[in-house]
Amino acid sequence: MMSGKATLIVASGEHDKLYSAFIIGNGALAMGMEVSMYFTFWSLERLKKKGINKGPLSKMNFLGLGKLFLKWKMKKANVRTLDKMLDDYVELGGKIFACDMTMGIMGINREDLRDDIITEYCAVGTYVKEARESEITLYL
To answer: Coil, strand, or helix at residue 87?
Structure first.
């Protein structure tokens, strides 16, 4: 089994970018790596209760029609839904850090977020510590 650590900064709340984060995170966890995702700015909106599927696509959203088409194509290809990927990530031991400084900037309170999936509310120092210990760091 592979060991090591990956740290991802998740700054976008866009649906397709979250998919990328969870595909990479789950893949690394499945390979035996420790994985941390540091959620900041617009991605924090997706950690809200019932918020994981709310974001638009980064391109060709077309007032939500593009997202509906993408979801249909993914279902047809038997790709897990984003909420299931989040559940898998947490179940496999992935860590989710919520940046409390940007929570204040974005007007998000702890009670707005899904406390059941968040490992820690923290500041940038936690991200830096995680990243320094990582073989892989990505900004999504």
So the answer is: helix
